[in-house]
Amino acid sequence: xxxxxxxxxxxxxxxxxxxxxxxxxxxxxxxxxxxxxxxxxxxxxxxxxxxxxxxxxxxxxxxxxxxxxxxxxxxxxxxxxxxxxxxxxxxxxxxxxxxxxxxxxxxxxxxxxxxxxxxxxxxxxxxxxxxxxxxxxxxxxxxxxxxxxxxxxxxxxxxxxxxxxxxxxxxxxxxxxxxxxxxxxxxxxxxxxxxxxxxxxxxxxxxxxxxxxxxxxxxxxxxxxxxxxxxxxxxxxxxxxxxxxxxxxxxxxxxxxxxxxxxxxxxxxxxxxxxxxxxxxxxxxxxxxxxxxxxxxxxxxxxxxxxxxxxxxxxxxxxxxxxxxxxxxxxxxxxxxxxxxxxxxxxxxxxxxxxxxxxxxxxxxxxxxxxxxxxxxxxxxxxxxxxxxxxxxxxxxxxxxxxxxxxxxxxxxxxxxxxxxxxxxxxxxxxxxxxxxxxxxxxxxxxxxxxxxxxxxxxxxxxxxxxxxxxxxxxxxxxxxxxxxxxxxxxxxxxxxxxxxxxxxxxxxxxxxxxxxxxxxxxxxxxxxxxxxxxxxxxxxxxxxxxxxxxxxxxxxxxxxxxxxxxxxxxxxxxxxxxxxxxxxxxxxxxxxxxxxxxxxxx
Length: 603
Prior knowledge:
This protein is an alpha/beta fold. 56% of the residues lie in helices and 11% in strands.
């Protein structure tokens, strides 16, 4: 399969011509690889620009004169160069129309254009994302995490990596015991079936209920004259939750049975949300199965003098010499913290897979945590410790502020997807987008538009930045939105159906013909796709794919508006424009696929 060959062929061909020109004009040798060509700025005529300043020592002439001489040589000797112009030290080169036509044929001939295929020797990358707690349903923050993780996995696959998508489920700890205890006290044997709620929603309600009851206890204790911290420490409900955690870690049968039952409800709910969101995992780890491995490693570190024990029995790592502080690894009662679990999970993963790179998709509030994890794994002697990658992303906020799980003020993932589909339905019906569809087609299209708008709105933002999500802004058939992008390949599909009905087929070979600047620019934009995919993989940025796709759509829509296609009288030109349109749709679908976004054929 071709990858990076098409546009690079033109660039490499011209770069070789430049090297030959330097040799012929100035008697000097330069390597074609050192010749840097970039896309010509829109305000100037041309396709590729050569910066000639690096060659002035060789030419011993002014920038303008050097550029003029190299340009004249290329126009005379290099068939791919049709013309040139000089702006100070910049040589703007116009590529011959025949090269763009051959390039379009190359793109057409590559079904998976822009992607590399993995081989048995390709690097194995493990990507951890989602990482939910089993005390609450997935929310808007989880949606950004899942979408980033899944898209990053697809982008790395497109770059020829072997990828393992993994999830660590935080299924133990004090937060889990809070939900369990609240259900035990006030649940009256309520189940997902009896309540009509998804299991994760049901358990989340009890997590919120625990917090409400706990605050009531704290307020009552404060009313007796206790300070807030003292009241929180003496609240019976929190003491019961900690006792339940100790019993869980001791293997108490009753607590374990309740834990298994309630977690099973949550997992069924999670699976439904994941399916709807369109994300999946190759391997799921559970904290309840990894924390013991982590405890074992921490105790080994304690025996080897890497860590120390305080008087209360807790175990700590002193990282002050590494520029950090002291980190708790085991509590005084012997229970584990998140860091302990992550040490155990990392060890088990590298035992299970020959991982070349481990990427954690976790919000930027955990930057310190992953600094510490990398250090601790390195101190424990794991070679992979220093190479861990924390894909740190910004938080998602709402127009009216941050979300808080324990107070029940989060935006639930399921509710948000419902709202997106309702909005997609309302807008699509208002614009008549569903008029010619069957009910089943309309339902599926609404789903694709709603979820596509949600995914695109989140993924178009630089992952490192915090963002505000506004559902109403995300669905708009104009502007930088998923639905705007989805409409273009649907329009092209309609065009190709009409062409087929009229007896026009897509050609394998294109007849040479003159192209407009817009048509040449559109092919050049298509040719950028492979390098954009490569750059997105190197920088871990789905936003590059999203914004490239938007730019491609804008450029095609202007072309579609300005030039006839089926009504074009020149058959060769009509065939070219049909082939160009088909490959624009192909690249849009490919790019949106890397974002996990489906594209309807009708819209």
